[in-house]
Structures are given as structure tokens and as C-alpha cells.
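Good morning C.,

I know you're traveling, so I'll keep this short. The sequence:
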Amino acid sequence: MSIKRSSFVMSGADFFASEIPIFVNRAYENFEMHTHSHEFVEITYVSEGAGMHYIADEAVPAEQGTLFFIPVGHSHVFRPKTPQKERPLIVYNCLFPVSYLSGLRAAFPQAEEICGFFGDEGLHWFSVKDTAGAYHLLFQELYREFSAKPPGYLAVLASLIVRILTGMYRDRLQTAAPAGDKPQWLAVDEAIAYIRSHYAGSLKLGALAAGANLSERQFSRLFQAQTGMSFTGYVQSIRMEAACRLLRTGRAGVAEIAAGVGYADLKFFHRLFKQKIGMTPRQYRNAALAEEGPHR
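The C-alpha cells, ready to paste straight into the viewer:
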């Protein structure tokens, strides 16, 4: 598909209110939008669907969980994979002027290095993958705060944007670091992302330690220091979190949920759930249903 560069430049005046130097939306991408650049910074998160992102003379797959940093002046456009309405490409967009980074730097002096990185005029666009779903949660909260505008929402928006930028900065360092030369905290970060994405499968401490080029003892010590939990305890907590979510929101039976979060032994799952949550899975589901009942 041929995408021509365009001289169309989006102005910040079309998006930013006088006292709100941020704009957040959730958009359905289509084939009508023209290729464009803008006078502001854009961070886009692909929430649903798939397609292509044509940016700076490159064609990049836009898949669910992909996050793009688009600096000022970069010509780009998204295109869904298909024009079928039942298979849309949906993205969250967070826009702000470059000057907003100076405000963040003043409000969060500890993030000076990060704000300086994203404020660099020579910074090229880049993308990262949301392997653990953390960015999706941040963008959902960002959109809710911007749309509802409850008391203190500008402070919450600023803190969320700092978290997003910090995550992208770390991801950028991670991909730029030579193999075998990554800081040790990245080993735990990568392990946590893998656990959160593969908690239902077979997770072996030895395999994750080997992937980080660390001994099991070194890896265990780092993991405990950075999470406050042992490897086994952390895996169990993630699985219980998933089980609670499924019990609250789904209709699957307890045995199916146990298997779905990684436990083939139903008796062990029951015992562990009661130990961690303080009640049986059935009691938890009934309590959740009773709590939601009056609001239905």
C-alpha cells in the first residue's frame, strides 16, 4: 500500500484547552485520515485490533499492545488491517506540547533525565511492546481521568504520564543494551513481564535465571530484593490475582479456572486459594456477586 507524505500539520490549538496542556482520546482508526505530522508529542497505544503504522517512510505492524512514541514533525498515519467494522483498529492517543515536559521536570525532579530524553529534538520515533499489559492499564486510567476530570485529575494525569515515559525509557535502554551487558534490575523486570504473560504455563526459576545469565541463587536473591517475595510466592500471587478476576467476571467453573491459571491439582488450588484469599473460591464468587447485585 502506497502512503504519500503530507504537509498537513496538526496544531496544538485544536486539542489543548488553556489550562489543560494534555489531550487523551480513544479512537477508531480508518482509511479516511490523511498522513500528517503535528506540533506536539504523541504517544499512541494500540488497544485492540491490528493494522499498519506508516511513519517516517516506514511501514510498521500495529498490533494490540504496541506503544509508539511519535515526536514533533514525524509524518505518520494508522491504517486498520481490514475495513470490516467488526474488526476495528482502536488506539489510545496521549498528546502534549514539548513544553509540558519542562513542567513535568519541575514537578518530578527525579525524572529530569527521563524528561530530558523525551524532550531531545533529535529523538527519532520508536515503539515498545506491552508484554505484561501494564501500559494498557495505565492508558485506561489516563483516559478515565481525562474524560471525567475529577478533583486533582491534572496531578493524576501528570503522574500517569511520568510512569508511561519512565516505562518507555526503561524499555528503550533494555533494547539498546548489548547482549550480556544489561543491568541486573532488568533481569527481574523481564522475568516479571514473562510471568505476568505466561502465568498459566510451566514456570521454572532455573529457566528464567538462565535467560538472565545468572545463577539460580543470584536470580533468587535479586527477585526477592526487588519484589519482596520469593519466586514461587510471586507466581502464586499472580495466579491468585487472575483466579479472583475470573471468579468475579466470568462464569467458568472453579475446576476450569484452576486449570486456566496453572493448577491441574484442584485440591491444591482450593487449599492455596483459601490460604491466600481467606475464603474458598466459591465463597469469593458469591461475595463478589452479592456486592455487585444492587448495582445491576
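Safe travels,
E.
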